[in-house]
Amino acid sequence: MYYLEFVFTFLLIPVIVLFFFKKKRTQTATLGLIIHLIIAVLYTVPWDNYLIKNGIWYYDDKLITDTIFLIPIGEYLFILLQTTLICLTISPATFSYNKNTCFKYSSKGLYIGLIFLLFGIVLMFFTNSFYLSLILLWASVPFTVQLSIGLNVLKDNISVISKYCFLFTIYFSIIDSYALGKIWFIAERTSLGINIGNIPIEEIIFFCCTSLFVLNGMCLWFKLKLK
């Protein structure tokens, strides 16, 4: 299976199904999706390019069509469609908002984000934890921003966010297991070597983080636009 075939099968088809069969989306939800797509591409592409350049993950040249920088076209579509799939699944009604809860600075949220940063820095000094280190460093920025300004809003929705994060992490990990070792590969020298099935623990953590980014972001976005 080619990279594009994989993306079309496991991401595009579910997105099309959701797009046509779910209730009409509001302008707020659509704008939130567009904003998250822009952020996802701008924030992920430089990091992804670094991973490929340093051989932390790589792909079978025969199974890709073309690249932009070092990243396969299919990877760009994966980023966009993963974000779209999550955003189409949820709506303002997914979350619960307390009228008395508002955005405010949270030192606890800042500290949680800094913990990700600290662990990322420490793990960077060990070769076999380098991939995990880069994931945590990359994740620390959006987590710090989201939790610093919206921790009290997110706490009210921790149950529903956790549920959707778990489901999306499972789904993305399952489809990842299909492609690993065939379409793309994770370098053993920079990986902990801890697998669930054939899925490196780093991949599961990555999908958990990306799912949380979008779920947290949309939860905060809907609260911001709530009238």
Would you kindly provide a written description of the structure presented here, covering whatever features stand out?
This protein is 67% helix and 6% strand. By secondary structure, it is mostly helical. The chain has a two-stranded antiparallel sheet. The chain has a two-stranded antiparallel ribbon with strand order 2-3. A hairpin with a 2-residue loop joins strand 2 (67-68) and strand 3. It is globular, with a radius of gyration of 18 Å.
Descriptors for this entry?
globular; 7 helices
- State the order of secondary-structure elements, H for helix, E for strand: HHEEEHHHHEEEH
Shape: globular
Sheet-strand content, in percent, reads: 5-15%
Largest sheet: 2 strands, antiparallel
In what order do the strands lie side by side in the largest sheet?
A: 1-4
Number of helices: 7
Poorly predicted residue ranges = none
Averaged pLDDT: 95
User: Kindly, what is the distance between the CA atoms of the first and last residues, rounded to a whole number of angstroms?
Assistant: 47 Å
Radius of gyration: 18 Å
Number of strands: 6
